[in-house]
Amino acid sequence: MSSFLEDREPAPDMSGDAVAEAFAAGVTTPAERKRAFQILFLCQLAGGMGQTLVYAVMPPIARQLGMSEFETTMIYSLSSLLWIITSPFWGRRSDIVGRKPIMMVGLLAFAISTTIFACLVLAGLWGWLSLGILFPLLLLSRSIFGGLGSGNGAAAQAYVADRTTRSERAVGVASLGAAFGIGTAIGPGVAAAFAVIHVVAPFFAVAALAYSSAALIWFYLPERTKPSHRVSEKQGEGKRAGLKWYDRRALPWVVISIILSFAQSIVMQLCAFYFIDMLHLKLAEATQMVSVGLMAMAMAALFAQIGLIQRFNLSVQFLLRWGSVIIIFSFAGLVIGYSYGILVTALTLSGLGFGLLRPGLQAGASLSVSHRDQGAMAGLIGGTSATGMILTPFIFLNSFIGFNVYERMHQAPFIVGALLSMLVLAFALFHPLMKDLKQSAENYEDEEEGIGIQ
Question: What is the pTM of this model?
Answer without folding.
Answer: 0.73
